[in-house]
Amino acid sequence: MVLPIFALVFALVIHTFITSKDTISTSFYIESILILVFSIYFIFYLIYKGFDTKITESVSKAFTREYMYKYLKNEIRDSKEYTLVLLSVDNLYEINSRYGIKNGDNILFKTLEWIAVYLKSKDIYNFPIGRIKGGDFVIGLSGDKSRYKTIIELMCLKSEDFKIDDIEVQISGAINDTKFSRDIDYLIENLFELQIKNRDSKSALESTDDVNPNELEYGVINAIKREDLLIYTQSVFENDSELFKECFVKLKREDGTIIHQKNYMKILDKLRLMGDYDLIVLEKTLKMCKRSDKGKFAIHISPTSLRNYTVLTKIKEIFEKNECVKNRIILIFEESEYYPRIEKFNAILQQLRSLGVLVAVDRLGSLHTSFLYLRDLDIDIVRIDPYYTKESEEKEYKNIISGFSVMAHEKGVKTWVKMIESQSSLDLAKELKIDYMQGRYIAPLDKNENDRS
User: Fold this and answer.
1) 440 in Cβ contact with 235 (< 8 Å)
2) Does the keyword Magnesium apply (predicted)?
3) Distance CA 375, CA 146 (A)
4) What is d(CA 222, CA 35) in angstroms, rounded to the nearest whole number?
5) DSSP secondary structure of 217-276
6) Tens digit of each residue's pLDDT (9 = 90 or more) over 273-287
């Protein structure tokens, strides 16, 4: 486009010079030189911008994330119904580590080729595919997800034996459409959430959550601003005596409906409201604690809040001002990724313990970090993951729980199990010398009054 214009300008200057060289003024030469210089500069500028704005990325040859987002926004705006599919190479990190980055890059490229061939065999053509991150790719398809759901499920099943150059490639996916939202950011985030649920439950690639994400965010923000929440409790027993209550929190919308924890926890992280939420829950639990003569309460707290200097300072101030709740609050936390600065984290926990706070690590036996934290942190209680306690009567799980109990007691840490659903489970927990027991068989879930004062 630019070169023809430059050629025309150059031809015009030459023609004018040849036909009218005797009458041309000095200013003509100056103007001609300036025009030619700016034309050359403009050409090089456009060439540079062409290199600067890439449409496809070099490894997989898929669209870049920036271009894919821009493309999908236009498609969603112009389409009545539109479907997004997330397909991921789950073991990309392992492939890169074991076989090298070059082989990992080759896996990405050939996986996309395989996906394209499969979809074309199902008469699906001319679809955009972009790399969002790592081994995660998003495909855009016209129409609602009911047209593609079965096809994508079959593709994921077929991929169970998928290999490239004798390298096993593990693929998982998720699907949603504009019935969930017409905002591309919400759609992409929801795909990743669905994928995690699908991996855990091995269920169909379908969303069962019809909550509008924009309304959900608004409801969460409003509930935090108004400090409006409901706290339910369940008693935890030592032998046959109630020792403390575990708190379960739900947020309240302005219309009185509730937002369940599974829906709002990710939003709190996304909106950087987790610290505010943890402080609100702590304050309200302290009020419950003060209303109860000697009652003890266990609340869940994010480990990132404990490691946040501002939040930690406020937590310590709260406990320093409320001596009456000393040794009556248990902070429970879990974490899927091991925190590398473990000495610093342990020092934080010891500061809290010195103020009379008990510390518990959750989900022993499910998250690998629970073992490491039991080993590396000075804590008071560890709770065994309910996956084992639900099946505790099976011999293999019985032995595992027994091992967990011995391991914890060797470190001077109390053990805690929940989901005691029968007399036999209760008897077994006692037999295995579990310290704290909890479940619907022993005590139901109780609703506590929401104190907004």
Assistant:
1) no
2) no
3) 49
4) 59
5) HHHHHHHHHHT-EEEEEEEEEETTEEEEEEEEEEEE-TTS-EE-HHHHHHHHHHTT-HHH
6) 999 999 999 999 999
Tell me the residue type at 245: K
- CA-to-CA distance for 233 and 295, rounded, in angstroms? 12
CB atoms within 10 A of CB 117: 9
DSSP string, 339-361: -S-HHHHHHHHHHHHHTTEEEEE
- Going from N- to C-terminal start, the domains of the chain cover 2-52, 65-210, 228-448
Contacts of 294 (CB under 8 A, 6+ apart): 328
Concatenated DSSP letters for 347-412? Answer: HHHHHHHHTTEEEEEEEETTBHHHHHHHHHS--SEEEE-HHHHTTTTSHHHHHHHHHHHHHHHHTT
Match 């099943």 to its residue by tokens: 157
Output the average pLDDT for the chain: 87
Which residue bears the tokens 């017409």? 182
Say how far apart CA 248 and CA 440 lie, in whole Å.
Answer: 14
Q: Which of 199, 60, 198 is nearest to 138 (CA)?
A: 60
Query: Quick one: tokens of 294?
Result: 């000697």
- Is the domain covering 228-448 a CATH 3.20.20.450 domain? yes
| Residue 344 exposed, middle or buried by CB count within 10 Å (0-12, 13-18, 19+) | exposed
Nearest to 449 by CA among 223, 298, 231: 231
The 3-state DSSP class for residue 34 equals helix
The full 3-state SS of 10-27, as one line of letters, equals HHHHHHHHHHCCCCCCHH
Q: What is 65-210's CATH topology?
A: Alpha-Beta Plaits (3.30.70)
Phi, psi of 431 (to 5 degrees): -60, -35
pLDDT in tens, the chain (453 residues): 555 665 666 666 666 666 666 566 666 666 667 777 777 777 676 666 655 557 888 888 899 999 999 999 999 999 999 999 999 999 999 999 999 999 999 999 999 999 999 999 999 999 999 999 999 999 999 999 999 999 998 888 888 888 998 899 999 999 999 999 999 999 999 999 888 887 766 544 544 455 678 888 999 999 999 999 999 999 999 988 999 999 999 999 988 889 988 889 989 998 999 999 999 999 999 999 988 878 899 999 999 999 999 999 999 999 999 988 899 999 999 999 999 999 999 999 999 999 999 999 999 998 899 999 999 999 999 999 988 877 655 667 888 899 999 999 999 999 999 988 888 888 889 999 999 999 988 988 887 644 444
Fold match between domain 65-210 and domain 228-448: no
